[in-house]
Amino acid sequence: MAKSAEKTKKSKSKKVFTPNIVAFACNWCSYAGADAAGVNRLQHSPNFRIIRTMCSGRVTPAFVLKAFNAGADGVLVSGCHFGDCHYIFGNHKAVEQFDKTKALVKTLGLDERRVRLEWVSAAEGPRWAELINEFVEQITALGPSPLNHKKK
Amino acid sequence: MTIATDKLKSNRAFLCLECGKCTAVCPISRYNELFSPRRMLAEGLFYDAENLISDKLLWSCLTCQLCSQRCPVDVRFSEYMRDVRADAYLQGKRGNPSHGGALHYIMEMVSESKLKQNRTGWINGDLKVKKKGDVLYFVGCLPYYQDFFAKDFDFSPVSIAADTVKILNYLGIEPVILDNERCCGHDLYWLGQLQKFDELGEENMKQFEKSEVKTIVTACPECALVLKRLYPERLGSGKYEVKHITELVAENIDKFNFKELGEKATYQDPCRLGRYLNVYDQPRDSIKSIPGVEFTELAHCRRGAICCGTTNWMNCDITSKQIQKSRLQEAVQSGAGTLITACPKCQIHFRCAEMGDENEKTGIEITDFVNFIAKAIDN
Ligand code: SF4
Ligand code: SF4
Ligand code: FES
Q1: Do residues B233 and B198 lie in contact, with contact meaning Cβ atoms separated by under 8 Å?
Q2: What superfamily in CATH does domain B5-90 come from?
Q3: Residue B120: C-alpha distances to residues A48, B164, B369, B373 (Å)
Q4: Which pTM value belongs to this model?
Q5: Which residues sit with their C-beta closer than 6 Å to ligand 2?
Q6: Residue B373 near residue B286, CB atoms below 8 Å
Q7: What are the tens digits of pLDDT across the range B111-163?
Q8: Of B355, B361, B354, B341, nearest in space to B157 by CA
Q9: Topology of A20-142 in CATH?
Q10: Which residues line the pocket of ligand 1, CB cutoff 6 A?
């Protein structure tokens, strides 16, 4: 319901909503995967800011909440596939942390589809581009976050 | 850089005699010799306050009010900390938040009036609540603690909320619970973020007014302090009375039909409930009236009680851990098998201190006042 209300507002003002997305990517896989997408000149949406962490396990709920508090419309957490984490169990930690994050995001009243945890390897440039496009599309459909003060 | 004179007058820092009694009793100073309330006063009064404002230890004070109990001239050291921190905050200075600051972000986020939280999921079918009525139960951060701490610490913060409603129902009260209650702002207040505190307070007061309640009950000492004293001080008083659940239970103790429990229990005085709000006897009387419960006191109790080691989710460090461990040791030495506290945060901190090294575990049962009472009325 809220979604459709946002949409009518948009069409009236004829302003297109371009989401702000924060993407956390681990140094060893996902960041390299994003790099590969660039090196291969794969066209994908520019609506995200990438933040490199040494491992996805470092991304605690605080990181994601800070992004939302600063006005992000969506947050992506990405790391190596299971078995590939360079700190062995880091991405299992990431899953634990992400469960908490998701629960908090829900309790806060934000749509849980605004957060996502994905595994992207260094070789998966095309997958990174696809993932970003898909996520941007999803967040565009959801509209601005209620905490995005610039888009009010 | 100096601290404004009117602030030094209102928190009575001007009267300091430099006797040092505060430093002598302070639980932080006991384990960290670099921390001294007396020195912090001298710095703010006689020297360039820049030192004090940039000092990371500025954020370590627990605002536990223990020092003010001993101070011969009633310097309000906690209020002094609040005022200095407010200046420091404006200069962009921060302490080291626990949990990466996650809880502080939540406090800030829920001040946004457009946010529609999902915070009532814990209300199960057995609990009777109403949309309109005379009594409101102010839940506080428990739903967030559930998401954040339940798994790690193996306890259920929302069980405190559920058991509070259970006790109210037992007394024939069906409380109103706000779907979109905001954080009370307690931590932001003591961290000097007064503007955010006011924003949260105004949102909450608006909702209280709309619901037309006559009494607000809370099971959190911090919420109780804020609703009873800090909102009226800063934002004007509402047309309702505020009670902590320990007060409500004590008032109605004749109406309870407790079963026999057979436990030896002791009680941790939460700083806000004890020294700030003067609620000492009510929880004790209620616990003692349960048949089969033997009550023992901690070595430091009532006015002299020692804080659980951290407040405002700030500067939790080895000192905090030492305070927590010594507090748990006191509980063991009291001979009790159960440590009862009336503050959800005390419980989180004590449970945290029990984690880690197996050999250092005391194994004492830690529970909340409402969980304990609810257990005794279980049929
Ligand atoms: S309020 Fe408590 S922690 Fe702060 S200086 Fe006084 S005794 Fe120490
Ligand atoms: S106890 Fe009171 S008078 Fe003595 S140093 Fe501390 S604040 Fe000053
Ligand atoms: S290094 Fe990539 S997830 Fe741990």
Answers
A1: no
A2: Alpha-helical ferredoxin (1.10.1060.10)
A3: 33, 14, 21, 22
A4: 0.93
A5: B 16-22, 37-38, 41, 70-73, 75, 77
A6: yes
A7: 998 899 999 999 999 999 999 999 999 999 999 999 999 998 889 999 999 99
A8: B341
A9: Rossmann fold (3.40.50)
A10: B 22, 26, 28, 37, 61-67, 77-78
